[in-house]
Amino acid sequence: MNKLTVSLSPHVHSGDSVQKNMYGVCIALLPAMVCSLYFFGLGAAVVLLTSIASCVLFEWAITKYILGRDKVTIIDGSAILTGILLGFNLPSNLPIWIVIIGALVAIGVGKMTFGGLGQNPFNPALVGRVFLLISFPAQMTTWPVSGTVGYLDAETGATPLSLISSGQIDKLPDHIDLLLGGIGGSLGEVSALALLAGLAYMLWRKIITWHIPVSILGSVTIFTGILHLADHTQYVSPELQLLSGGLILGACYMATDYVTSPMTPKGQIIYGTAIGILTVIIRNWGSYPEGMSFAILIMNAFTPLINNYCKPKRFGEKPRKEAAK
Amino acid sequence: MKTFSIGGVHPEENKLSAQSPIRQASLPKQAVFSMFQHIGAPAKPVVKKGDVVKVGTLLGEAGGFVSAPIYSSVSGKVSKVDVALDASDTRRMAVYVDVDGDEWEESIDRSETLVTLAERPELDSKTIIDKIKQAGIVGMGGATFPCHVKLCPPPGQKAECVIINAVECEPYLTADHRLMLERPEQILVGVTLLMKAVGVDKGYIGIENNKPDAIALMTEKASKYPNIQVVPLKVQYPQGGEKQLIDAVIGRQVPAPPAIPINVGAVVQNVGTAYAVYEAVMKNKPLIDRVITVTGKSVKTPSNLLARLGTPFSQLIDECGGLPQDTGKVIGGGPMMGKALISLDIPMTKGSSGLLIMNDKEAKRAEADPCIRCAKCVGACPMGLEPYLLAQVSSQHQWEKAETEDIVSCIECGSCSFTCPSHRPLLDMIRLGKTTVMGIIRSRSQK
């Protein structure tokens, strides 16, 4: 007979794993990926592949040669996911070397300096993106128009948000284009419908809960709705705000990053609502046309504080207070 | 359909033995009776080497109020009074009996005739509780808290209802399920006895809806008892937890420790306990046997055995086709809260609800990954705690922080470890913290 294994209960496991969750998000991003390839052609493929490959390579190299760890962490899927999300936040005509720098900052500074998976306070893909936005403002804000097929020679144009920001509201694309993807912008921003399909998949697989996406989309709708009602010549309608820029991408895939978002439903709603409000403030009164990245990074910094104050409702809490009376 | 309000998980049910009728296990050659088959003070042996005992002879008397006597389940001769390994993997004082024949004490009524409370009007609350206490009945769901203690509410507290725990939310186990299908009337009489004992006129039987046949049968039989209501519950682990069950059935939440169920007017007893109460009060039979599920994916014939206490587990496994070749782990109880056994010679006790045999592959734990802060443990915790945080502060020995984060409310159901995608041993670390914090609280109150 074999020796008996002795360990503490529970003796069974749900079968869930880090990989299942990470690759689950990757699968949820597939429809949006297909859309970006359809609308931006070769450029999208080059940027996405460069971003994914360099994120994975940097994680492997840093783990092995700088941290000196033997465990291979790249198979857990988190570096691939960071690569996809970084790529989704870039314009499709960005030179390869800038993409590689972005990946180095995302993985190297955003993730591995803190110790790797689970330790980073800020969303790595956003750290990479914001670094590039500040370092290479010209390249990061010339957007190819959708329907181009080339890479560096792509035809460029304005995005809906830059039109809003510069006051050219009358030149905005119509709602159908916003929903399906016929607009300029970074890779992952083009099709709201594809992104929402992915969100539905993640909710169904129970990879994330509804709290963060719903509170962000809800607070943006309410805030921009009030502004639009107050002065519709200056402030565009809520649905335009929702469908333009990285709002849905950010709300569904970036703000919901496990590591950098709060742990309790109450905390997640506060976090999401604050992201929504900050985004609208930056979009309307800040110097950048898009505020989603900054809003998420700012709230990432508040996550430990939110975790400290937002406790789940304990079992039996109510009667305990009654008993104290 | 009703269930409890916070958290919970749904493990694969694997009720392999649900269709297998209760079978009488054969007598052991030697039976070993641990004096520590319950929570509280151990029983004190009252026999010595060479004494001749029968089925139902007292072997150990209760060691205090929170304690229970131990009776022999076999007839034969006491071979020694010595320590023995018990199901908690600890060596405890025990009485060894070499079995010879099967002679019963004459006071025990071994007939099958059903006796109802209506036929025994002389039974009052005190008589019933005394009988239960004398018979050595403890919580049969596995917690083994002496039954009579729960029936004597502390001063100032009043019971309002009896809730029977027939949930059997642990995967694999089917002992309670089979008992309900095969002894429904006896169980119902047991419930009326428990209700009479605590002086209430409302009884509930909570059954999860993965046992539709038991729900149907119990509902049909309970129609004769207008005060007893069968409550079907949505399948959700850990619904068999006392606090979760009260929440599910009557919608009241027991406050944090030191509050107990009686604070919200509930007395909870397991369905197996109700059956034992019937036998003790109506048949004068002390607790000497119980139904145990012997199961596992590699077990030849997963079964429900009516076995005498003190029978070694190895014999029960032999009765179900023998120990499989690929055995990796043997668990006393269910897979969520059961205890891995270090030996198969351990004898079964009052709390042995199941014996689960896992193969090599199932027995291994996956390697832990870093916490990715996905918050799934927070969502799964039925007590509204934050397992990731409790595990972290416990591993860092931050006992004060662990206490303010309500670590003592943890019921050790294992939902957090079960659900963790990183396979982190959350409950292992929380147990360390909980035990330490409870020790700190105890020593503080003694000062």
Write down the secondary-structure element order of chain A. Answer: HHHHHHEEHHHHHHHHH
Order of strands across the widest beta sheet of chain B? 1-14-13-17-15-16
Count of helices of chain A? 15
SSE class of chain A: mainly alpha
The overall number of domains of chain B is: 4
Structural class determined from secondary elements of chain B: alpha/beta
Architecture of chain A, according to CATH? Orthogonal Bundle
- What share of the residues of chain B does DSSP label as strand, in percent? 15-25%
Alpha carbon gyration radius of chain A? 21 Å
Helix-strand blueprint:
The complex is a heterodimer of chains A (325) and B (447).
Chain A: H1 18-28, H2 30-66, H3 78-88, H4 96-109, H5 124-135, H6 137-140, E1 143-144, E2 156-157, H7 160-165, H8 175-180, H9 192-204, H10 211-230, H11 238-243, H12 247-254, H13 265-285, H14 292-309, H15 317-324
Chain B: E1 22-24, E2 30-34, E3 44-45, E4 52-53, E5 58-61, E6 70-71, E7 76-85, E8 91-99, H1 125-134, H2 147-150, E9 161-165, H3 175-182, H4 184-198, E10 203-208, H5 212-222, E11 228-233, H6 242-250, E12 266-270, H7 271-283, E13 289-295, E14 303-308, H8 313-319, E15 327-332, E16 339-340, E17 354-359, H9 360-363, H10 376-380, H11 387-395, H12 399-404, H13 415-419, H14 426-446
Parallel strand pairs in B: 1-14, 9-10, 9-12, 10-11, 13-17
Antiparallel strand pairs in B: 2-8, 3-5, 4-7, 5-6, 7-8, 13-14, 15-16, 15-17
Helix pairs in contact in B: 1-4, 3-5, 4-7, 11-14
Commentary on this structure:
The complex is a heterodimer of chains A (325) and B (447). The longest helix of chain A is centred in the N-terminal third of the chain and has 37 residues, at 30-66. In chain A, 60% of the residues lie in helices and 1% in strands. Chain A has a two-stranded antiparallel sheet. With 325 residues, chain A is mainly α. Chain A has a single domain (18-309), classed as Orthogonal Bundle (Ammonium transporter fold), CATH 1.10.3430. Chain B has 447 residues and is an alpha/beta fold. Helices cover 28% and strands 19% of the residues of chain B. A 6-stranded mixed sheet of chain B has the order 1-14-13-17-15-16. In chain B, strands 2-8-7-4 form a 4-stranded antiparallel sheet, with no helix packed on it. The termini of chain B are far apart. The mean pLDDT of chain B is 93. Chains A and B meet through helix 1 and helix 15 of A and strand 15, strand 16, helix 9, helix 10 and helix 13 of B.
